[in-house]
Amino acid sequence: MPSHRVPQGMDAAPTVGELTPPDRTLMGPGPSDVHPRVLKAMSTPLVGHLDPSFIEIMDEVQNLLRYTFRTDNKWTIPVSGTGSAAMEAAIGNVVEPGDTMLVPTNGYFGDRMASMAERAGGEVVTVDAPWGQPLDPAAVEAAFDEHSPDVFGFVHAETSTGVLQPSVPELTDIAHANDALVIADSVTSLGGVELRVDEWGIDVAYSGPQKCLSCPPGASPLTLNDDAMDKVLSRESEARSWYLDISLLEGYWGEERAYHHTAPITNVYALREALRLVAEEGIEERWDRHLRVAGALKAGVEGMGLEMNAPDDFWLPSLNTVRVPDGVDDGAVIQYLLDEYDLEIASGLGALEGDIWRIGCMGHSARRQNVSYLLAALGNALGEQGAAIDVDAGLAAMSERF
C-alpha cells in the first residue's frame, strides 16, 4: 500500500499573529486611500442579501451610481467582483459569437478588452494608435469602414499610459452611425474626471471602486442603456459566464429582487458610503478637485526637472505617468518609497515597463498633503541615485499652482 504523507501543517493548527498591514499612503494606480467613513461603514452589522433593509440599500446604491455616471439608465448596478468582473460582464454579455468588436491598441487595457471579446466568441479587429496617444476619430471611422464592427470598445482613462481620451461624443457618433454599440472603460475616470454617460452617447460603461471612488474592491459599477440591454436579452446563445450573466443578474438587481448569488454585503455598504461622499461633494466639484490637486502634482514633478509621459492635451489627472530619468532604477525608487516612507507608486505596464512611474491622484488620495509628501519623498529617493533634480523648485511650483 502506498504511504499517505500528511501535508506539513495539517497535524497542528497554524499559529498566525494579529493582522497588522503597513499603513501606506497609496499614490499608485489603485487602490487609493480609503476614506475613514467608508472603513467605518464596512464595520457595521451584516444582514442577509435579501433582507428588506438591504434591498433599500441596493436601491440607494443604484441611484447614487446613476448620479455618478451621469445617467438615467435603469440597468445600473454594482457587479460582485473587482473592476475586471464588471469589464467581463460588459463585454461578455454584449459580445456574442459571430459579433465583431473593434478595440484600441494604445494601451494595456485595450488589449484586455480584446482578450475578453475573443473569449466571448467574438472576432476582434483593432484601431491603431501609439501607446501614450489617444484614438484619432478619423482612424476610428476608417476602421468602421473597413471592418463594420457590431461593438466598439474604448478606454476613457488609460491607466497604463496616463492618457485621457478626448472627443468621446465624436467617437460614439461614429459608432452609432454604423449601428454599433459602445462600451467605455471608465475604471480610472469614474468619480475623478468628467464623464457623462448619457450626454456622450455611451451605451455601456464599467468601472472599479478602488480608484477615484476610494472604496475597497469588491463591488464594481456597471451601467447599460436600453439598447445594450435589448442586445443582452435577445442573445441567440447564453452568456458563457453564469455568474456574470446580466440577464440573470437583472432578476436580483431589477424589480423582482430574486436570488441569484450572495452579494458581497460589506462591499456594497462600502460602495454606498463612497458614493454618498461623491454626492455630498458634488460630482462636478469632485472633477474640479482632481484637476486642481493633480495639476499641482504635475507642476511639482515638472518643477523638479522630471518629464510627464502624456502630452498636456491628453494628460489624465487621476493617473500621472512620469518618465524615469536616464540612469535611474525605477524599481529601486519604488522600493525606497515603500521602505522609507510607506508610500506606494507603481512602475509601467507593457510597452512602458521600466520607462515610467504611475502616480495616482484619486479620490481620498487627491489631497494637498499627499502631493507634498510624495514630492519630498520622491526627491529624496532620486537623490539617493544621484539624479539631478531640484526638490525645492518642485515644491515651490506645487505651492504656486495650489
Automatic annotation (TrEMBL):
GO terms of molecular function: alanine-glyoxylate transaminase activity; L-serine-pyruvate transaminase activity
Gene3D superfamilies according to UniProt: Aspartate Aminotransferase, domain 1 (3.90.1150.10), Type I PLP-dependent aspartate aminotransferase-like (Major domain) (3.40.640.10)
Required cofactor(s): pyridoxal 5'-phosphate
GO biological process: glycine biosynthetic process, by transamination of glyoxylate
Domain Aminotransferase class V: 47-348
Record InterPro entries: Aminotrans_V_dom, PyrdxlP-dep_Trfase, PyrdxlP-dep_Trfase_major, PyrdxlP-dep_Trfase_small, SP_NH2Trfase/AEP_transaminase
Keywords: Aminotransferase, Pyridoxal phosphate, Transferase
Region of interest called Disordered, as start-end residue ranges on this chain: 1-30
Family that this chain belongs to: Belongs to the class-V pyridoxal-phosphate-dependent aminotransferase family.
Protein name as it appears in the record: Aminotransferase class V
Gene that produces this protein: spaT
